[in-house]
Write a structure and sequence with these properties.
Blueprint (H helix, E strand, L loop, with lengths): L1 E3 L2 E5 L3 E8 L2 H9 L14 E4 L10 H6 L6 E4 L8 E2 L8 H14 L5 E6 L1 H12 L4 E7 L8 H20 L2 H8 L6 H4 L4 H8 L4 H11 L18 E6 L3 H13 L3 E6 L6 H4 L1 H27 L6
Parallel strand pairs: 4-5, 4-7, 7-8, 8-9, 9-10
Antiparallel strand pairs: 1-2, 2-3, 3-5, 3-6
Length: 312
């Protein structure tokens, strides 16, 4: 890994991932001393991996992570087609299964055997896929305004057609105009009125529209296999964060909660789809509580499994 400023690059066979890291000295100390005190982040060596949404980047998480003063170590990555990450393999590496495999390889390269996951929208769909396909690698998963994909093949076909048309629009009009149209969707009505919206727009403009189009074509919701039927088999702690004004994803969260056996839903007032931007303090409070509880639970399980068993 080489470092340039705050961003680092990790070269793998098919990707050159841009990674942003927030180290916690107490967590590093815990890894060295193996201290296990559930009341402090010193006790838990697991970092948290943050996955942004469509047109996002590692910097989407700066405000939230920086506000979390007593956090564990955190890592954010630019997903394929976004930010400074390069796909050095074929276009198929933009697809969700390949991207997930690449992320697991990235964790291996960083010597991270297990971590927590936070994902927003597209990044939330990917986070759920990772948790279901590689459950041994992730101790807890928080999804913000995300879904397990579409229920039926017909819905997927329709969405693929729509995503292809959207990708064509992305390539055929001025990029700034495309972004402005994107944020006219009802999902983002409250974000449009937020003081942080201009900075969100500026970050989006740093992307390459050609690479975003590839992401849409390969990892759009229509391309994703449905994860609905797999939810009931998962035991990984799951937190769903949704905005009060986001009716679509509140309904999706309710349906996920009916299927997943270890799921908590947090509805945040006075915001829509982009909770971490519109209500960052409340968003962080839910993440912090969930991660702390999940880490303590994992710690208890590891202690129980390590305890000597009495023979009868």
């Amino acid at each position: 890994m080489r470092s340039i400023g705050d961003d680092q690059w990790v070269d793998l066979s098919d990707y050159r991932f841009c990674v942003r890291k927030w180290e916690n000295p107490s967590t590093v100390e815990a890894q060295a001393t193996a201290t296990q005190d559930a009341s402090s982040w010193k006790s838990w060596p697991y970092p948290i991996l943050w996955l942004h949404g469509f047109m996002g980047s590692v910097h989407d998480w700066d405000a939230v992570v920086n506000e979390w003063g007593d956090r564990p170590s955190c890592i954010a990555i630019d997903l394929p087609g976004h930010g400074k990450t390069d796909v050095t393999g074929t276009e198929e590496q933009y697809a969700m299964p390949s991207t997930a495999q690449g992320i697991v390889q990235l964790l291996d390269a960083l010597d991270i055997r297990r971590c927590g996951l936070v994902g927003y929208s597209m990044g939330g769909r990917l986070a759920l896929y990772l948790a279901l396909q590689y459950p041994e690698r992730f101790c807890c998963v928080a999804l913000e305004s995300a879904s397990p994909g579409l229920h039926t093949a017909n819905e997927q076909d329709t969405r693929r057609t729509n995503d292809a048309a959207l990708a064509q629009t992305l390539l055929s009009i001025n990029f700034e105009q495309f972004i402005e149209q994107w944020y006219q969707q009802p999902l983002f009505a409250s974000l449009n009125q937020h003081l942080s919206f201009p900075s969100v727009m500026n970050r989006r403009l740093r992307n390459d529209p050609n690479l975003l189009a590839r992401s849409l074509q390969w990892m759009g919701t229509g391309q994703q296999s449905s994860l609905w039927d797999a939810l009931g088999k998962s035991t990984t702690p799951l937190l769903l964060i949704v905005g009060e004004h986001d009716a679509k994803y509140r309904q999706i969260a309710s349906e996920i909660g009916d299927r997943h056996p270890n799921c908590t839903i947090a509805t945040v007032p006075n915001c829509g789809h982009t909770v971490h931007v519109e209500q960052p303090t409340q968003f962080l409070a839910h993440i912090r509580t969930f991660v702390q509880t999940s880490f303590a639970s994992n710690l208890s399980i590891s202690h129980d499994s390590a305890a000597p068993q009495r023979s009868e």
